[in-house]
Structure formats: structure tokens, C-alpha cells
Amino acid sequence: MSYSDINLLPAAQWHHSWLAYFFRWIISYGRYVLIFTELIVILAFLSRFKLDQDLADLNDKIKTDKIILQSSVGFEKQVRQTVQNQVLTAREWENQLRWSYYLQAISQVLPSTVVIKKMDAATDHLTLVGSSSSLKQLNSFLNNLKASPAFQNVNLEKINTSLTPSQQNLITFSISLTPTKAYVKY
Q1: Considering the entire predicted model, what is its pTM?
Q2: What is 111-183's CATH topology?
Q3: Strand pairing category for 151-163 and 114-121
């Protein structure tokens, strides 16, 4: 008797049941699926070690970067303060340069008999206090200021007439005006 003749399962009813098909599939293709699934599980388990090491490295890097950033906070504040000081200085220089253009515009229209004794400059307003020996020259100065593109809203605020010790008429005045921002060309 040979081994091929021994069959413990009855052939007729067992071969056609769903349980027989399932066992045949498990024995033939199912083992490959099972081995493939186990390989995936083993790879996932092993990759966990690499991912844990990467996470630990990233946490260490974050800690060192945090320390570096915390140590540079004072330097950053110092740099910011320096930049703010430079911006303020630049604005002051710009403001001084702007006023020099306006002073130049005033000197171009100032007659020889008109004397400016005081100038009060605000951020957007200028007041001139002075005197003149001639009303005609004062009127010419006022008209020239009004015609100048450097100024707008030119108003004669005060005017007084008095006699000097040498019996000459002295006209004191106060003029307020607004500088035109478009006049200054950098």
C-alpha cells in the first residue's frame, strides 16, 4: 500500500463544502498572506526604534535651539533699541533738512528792510515775528510768502506801529503760515 492511497477524509461530501474550499485556500494562498502580514508587523515594530530615535533627536535639537534663542534675547533687544534710535535720528535729520528748505524759501522772498526777530516752528506750523521800517516792504514780503509754493495759509496775525528813538516808524508784525509738504524735494 502506498501513501497516496490513504485518504482519511471522505471524498464525496468534503470536497464540495465551503469549509473545504477555505482550508484549501488557507493551505495554498493563505500562508503567503499570513507571512506577508507578519513581515509588515515586524517592519513596523523595527521602524518604531528609528522613529523613536528621530523624535529624541528632534527634541534635543529643539532644546538647544530654545537655549540659543533665549540667550540671544538681550542682544535682540539691544539691536532693536539701536535701530529705533537710528530711525529717530534719521527722522530728526529729515525734519531739520525740511526746515532748512523752508528757511531758504523765506530768505529768498525777504526784503532788505524786513527783519525777522523770532521764529517759532511746530510740526506743521510756523510763526514769524519781526519788524520793518516800511509798510510797503512788509506788504511785499507778505505777498511773496503767499505766492511762494513753499507755504500755504499765510496770515498776518498782529501788526503794530511805533516810533523809534530816531523818530522813524517801526512796524512790528507776527505772521503765521503752514509749510507745504510737497515743496521739499529730497
Answers
A1: 0.49
A2: Alpha-Beta Plaits (3.30.70)
A3: unpaired
